[in-house]
Amino acid sequence: MASSSLALIFQGLCTALAGVVLVVIFLNIQFPYLLQDCKFCWTLFKVKQKRAVFRKRKPFYTVLDCFLNRVRTRPDKPLLVFEGREYSYQDCDKESNKIARALRKHGNLTQGDTVALFLGNEPRFVWMWLGLCKLGCAASLLNYNIRAKSLLHCFSCCGAKVLIVAEELKEAVEEVLPTLLEQKASVFILSKECNTAGLQTLVDKIEEASNEPISPELRSNVTMGSPAVYIYTSGTTGFPKAAVMTQERIWAGTFYLFINGASSEDVIYIPLPLYHAAGFVIGLHGAIQRGMTVVLRRKFSVSQFWDDCRKHNVTIIQYIGETMRYLCNTPKRESDKMHKVRMAIGNGLREEVWRSFQSRFGHIRIVEFYAASDSNIGFINYIGKIGAVGRENFYQKVSSTFILFFPHALIQFDAERGEPARDSNGLCIPMPQGETGLLVAKITTIAPFIEYARNPEQTEKKKIRDVFQKGDAYLNTGDLLRIDKDNFVYFQDRIGDTFRWKGENVATTEIEDVLTALDFIKDACVYGVKVPGTEGRAGMAAVTLKSGSEFDGTEAFSHIASYLPSYARPQFIRIQNSLEITGTFKQVKVKLVGEGFNLTIIKDPLYLHMDKDKCYKPMTMNYYNSIITGKMHI
């Protein structure tokens, strides 16, 4: 009897085990990414709980407090490695204390003020930011490529009262210094000596200051809603827009590395500019949150990239698609796979470059993501699906008190009219799964849209109303995406008056204003065109000439180079008799974009940007074929 009972129990266990195995097999077939989805969503839940704890602390627990905690627990650990020198967490703390004291005394700063940083990648950029945090001030991160009116606009639009300038950018600031002084701005240059009236030296004042800790009382009013930094994004006005990143949003970006498994033992390599959210928030702040070491590079160098990684035992790298393509285009070496890099995090990586990179440099985990400093929605490709920018998962879809966490949709976009298509009821039309559409994200308390600084007009333009029901409001990301049957998200293109080139957003209206300032150009229409083997779109301008005028390629080059950063300069200029416009006086770019710089189609005079010759030269079939085949790089 006993043996019979045991046999029945064993048989029952076997049946149950077989049932479990069948269930697992079924789930694996039906939901092949279920375990990874669950793991990722659990990690997001832990992040949400951490942020909830930070919010409840009095005063609010900021990233600065996280940094100061690292200073207390591991003071001698390197935070920054830069050009052969190491700076520990404690070193950075003391340097930022000196900067805070110098700025408070000589810049007359108080809690809530904004300071604009016009600096390149260097340790002082980090110390400046930490010092401003200790004073309860916000930082405006200016792109060091901007000049003239754009520089003045970016300084003024965030309400900054102090501008801090790198010594190598002195000439750019001197050009606008009279206007800055008229606005009663305090302008400091990072040097010990300066003969320019109105420019105050700062390095000498920092060296004289004490490195003793700064009283927390100076930042006692900082909350999760306080502006932390202003990060600039190109817009249709021709001038960059200042996206307000609150302390809460800084925390959100900080956890990207944590979500993807980074630890305090990792070393991250940041060759991206710190004025961008990727390098500043995800890279630098993510490293501080994890207690990591940052190897900071002044600028990306394709020849030094892997040598730096090997020298400093780098385990995580940051990228944009263009940098990865540059690395893949270098001559192959036996040392290509001799490194400790295990993860790369970034965006803009094309499928063919992705495969080439992993084949050549080893199976480095690629974490592609989709996000923007002015957006309220993001995706992460935590699965590693080649070519995808992220994955739509049930954390974003499931209901919390009957409200979706991050409501979003792809809607039909009318490229001819340059706006979302609408049905007979005036509502937007959702796109079926697998088809390309404009990504919009509902503006909610969970996923808010923080307005652009002092720019209510552009803030409102970023919103789409009456999307799926009358009265609702969604954020217009300006991006065309596609979501496949397995819920992987693919970036398709950008819309509107901006395009990306060399990792930067380019505003077409600003370029048009520069072009029409030339004596011989009447009207200009700027757009981006595809160039084989490159990321993003190269700038192209269709222009009309004033009566009796001729196009001067040398003068055009000199003028454009004086007013625009290299990435914003048109690579092609097309001379037309007239520019087509719509009934509402909007330029028609669809046909122009489609024709690109194809000499087999275009009969108009066409000119090519030739940096070496400092002029725009007539486009020839030899040049055209060289660009198409990749023999000539632009």
Short précis:
The chain has about 625 residues and is α/β, with parallel strands linked by helices.
Q: Assign the CATH class of the domain at 62-246.
A: Alpha Beta
Mean pLDDT score: 91
Tell me which CATH architecture of the domain at 62-246 applies here. 3-Layer(aba) Sandwich
Radius of gyration: 27 Å
What would the CATH topology of the domain at 62-246 be? Answer: Rossmann fold
Secondary-structure content class? alpha/beta
- Detail the poorly predicted runs: 398-404
Figure out the total of helices.
21
Strand neighbour order, sheet with most strands: 2-1-11-10-12-13-14-15
Total number of strands: 32
CATH superfamily of the domain at 62-246: ANL, N-terminal domain
Strand-residue fraction?
Answer: 15-25%
Could you describe the largest sheet, including whether it forms a barrel?
8 strands, mixed
Envelope shape: globular
Give the end-to-end Cα distance, rounded to a whole number of Å: 86 Å
Percent helix range: 25-40%
Keywords: Cell membrane, Fatty acid metabolism, Ligase, Lipid metabolism, Lipid transport, Membrane, Nucleotide-binding, Transmembrane, Transmembrane helix, Transport
Domain AMP-dependent synthetase/ligase: 69-380
Pfam families: AMP-binding, AMP-binding_C
Enzyme class: ligase
